[in-house]
Fold this protein.
Amino acid sequence: NKEGLFNVLIKLYTIPDERFSYRKHAVAASIAPVQAALIAALARDYLKENAQVLDPFCGVGTMLIERNKLVPANPMYGIDSFGEAIDKAIENSRADHTIINFINRDFFDFKHDYLFDEIFTNMPMRGGRKSEDEMVMLYNNFFRKALEILKDEAIIVMYTRDKELVLRGVAQNKAYS
């Protein structure tokens, strides 16, 4: 570094690392388990034990599993419209012995009997199959739907690379102001 000092970091391949051994399956859009663990650690002070948690874009379940490892939640729901991801999420949560209710459906069609304490999610990213207009609509609809399913003092912990889409989505839904 600028001070002429350095840190030596060594990865010992002879010691097995079992920390993320639950992650048996992934899909192309899956978040890395270490990244999900970091997001949970950064949000820790805001997480409530036994919160009712929803991940509306759960993929293979990594965000919910990592959130639950840090501060136990109950119940947890993971929703994804990609059926293959839901199948893999079920296997990953079983490997971790974590109870998560997975639902194969579009978040925007989701209805539930009670409100949630928290949304904990990795938002879909720009690129891929969605146009810019579709992404703007997705974020706008996400924030509108979140108002319907969250309790009054609920929180949203979201990982996204699209700050602009978050700001636009919040602006479209004046209840967040």
Summary: The chain has a mean pLDDT of 93.
